[in-house]
């Protein structure tokens, strides 16, 4: 195990932000890692059990699994072109970027990947940037996402929203240094360097570009960044396990049956106090929809709402907590 040392300047501190949601293509890669594990982590067992109970979904994932087995192995490196920064704007935007990657970049990154594993002969079509091969990559990753992640997307959004709300509180109370210190054992802030547990020793100089911290539901190990330090600096970090409500069940039972999918996601996200705007961004619904759902939850006594300056801050109530924990026991 090594250490990634990220070097900040004053400008970098001012330009450090937390992404509004998980990145769909990074989640594709990380979720495949979870499926490879021999020892199933409790937080992901309901998700894996749900996949096993739905053979049609596992068939739909098959081509994506085979592709990722080659292009994204459990190794210190996989090609950066699989997880472009554009995917933060949505799955399709990300896939369009993947499929239009310049062949010269693909070849360079595949050469680097070949240092860690032997590549099959069919990879030559991808290395040449052939349109049909790049389209196949997009189709495989799209099908994988639709089968593996999309059915539990509401839980991912809710868990990431709760983690992000905690980061926002850390930032408001302690500035960027408070934000970085809030990651605890994952990172160690010793100004002006952030030390991160990593697969090997590495240095990353931000040089005024800032750092985008991206929360991940399916990353369960160490924070991850691009292999190419010349790309926009990002750090994909695993959200805290307390925000992964695996006990709710990926299949949509429990709270969803009682409250409905979106309203259940709103309630779960409010384990950490969150504003209307934060909820809307994290759950990909409109502020008006958030207001309707929080209004119903408030009338039922499941959440409390208060003004915080110009923002409206929502928090789960003791009754709401008891409801969540009751479903955890069920």
Automatic annotation (TrEMBL):
Name of protein: Winged helix-turn-helix domain-containing protein
* Organism in which the protein naturally occurs: Nonomuraea longicatena
- Which domain of life, per UniProt? Bacteria
**UniProt keyword Transcription regulation, yes or no:** yes
SMART domains in alphabetical order:
HTH_ARSR
Question: What InterPro entries does the record tag this protein with?
Answer: ArsR-like_HTH, HTH_ArsR_DNA-bd_dom, Metal_resp_trans_reg, WH-like_DNA-bd_sf, WH_DNA-bd_sf
Keyword set for this entry?
DNA-binding, Transcription, Transcription regulation
Record keyword DNA-binding present: yes
Where do the HTH arsR-type domain residues begin and end? 253-328
């Amino acid at each position: 195990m090594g250490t990634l040392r990220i070097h900040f300047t004053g400008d970098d501190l001012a330009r450090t932000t937390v992404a509004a949601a998980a990145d769909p293509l990074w989640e594709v890669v990380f979720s495949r890692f979870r499926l490879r594990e021999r020892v199933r982590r409790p937080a992901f067992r309901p998700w894996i059990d749900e996949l096993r109970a739905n053979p049609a979904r596992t068939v739909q994932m098959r081509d994506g699994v085979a592709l990722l087995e080659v292009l994204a192995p459990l190794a210190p490196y996989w090609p950066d072109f699989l997880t472009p920064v554009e995917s933060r704007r949505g799955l399709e935007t990300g896939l369009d970027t993947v499929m239009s990657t310049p062949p010269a970049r693909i070849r360079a990154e595949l050469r680097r990947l070949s240092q860690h594993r032997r590549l099959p002969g069919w990879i030559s079509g991808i290395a040449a940037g052939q349109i049909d091969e790049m389209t196949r990559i997009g189709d495989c990753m799209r099908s994988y996402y639709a089968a593996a992640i999309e059915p539990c997307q509401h839980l991912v959004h809710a868990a990431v929203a709760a983690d992000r709300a905690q980061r926002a509180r850390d930032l408001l109370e302690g500035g960027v240094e408070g934000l970085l210190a809030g990651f605890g054992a994952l990172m160690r802030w010793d100004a002006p360097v952030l030390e991160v547990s990593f697969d090997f020793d590495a240095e990353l100089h931000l040089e005024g570009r800032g750092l985008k911290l991206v929360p991940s539901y399916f990353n369960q190990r160490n924070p991850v960044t691009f292999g190419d330090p010349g790309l926009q600096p990002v750090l994909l970090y695993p959200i805290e396990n307390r925000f992964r409500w695996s006990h709710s069940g990926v299949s949509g039972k429990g709270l969803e049956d009682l409250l409905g999918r979106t309203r259940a996601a709103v309630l779960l996200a409010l384990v950490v106090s969150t504003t209307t705007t934060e909820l809307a961004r994290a759950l990909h619904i409109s502020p008006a929809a958030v207001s309707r759902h929080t209004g119903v939850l408030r009338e039922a006594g499941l959440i409390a709402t208060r003004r915080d300056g110009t923002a409206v801050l929502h928090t789960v109530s003791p009754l709401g907590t008891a409801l969540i924990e009751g479903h955890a026991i069920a």
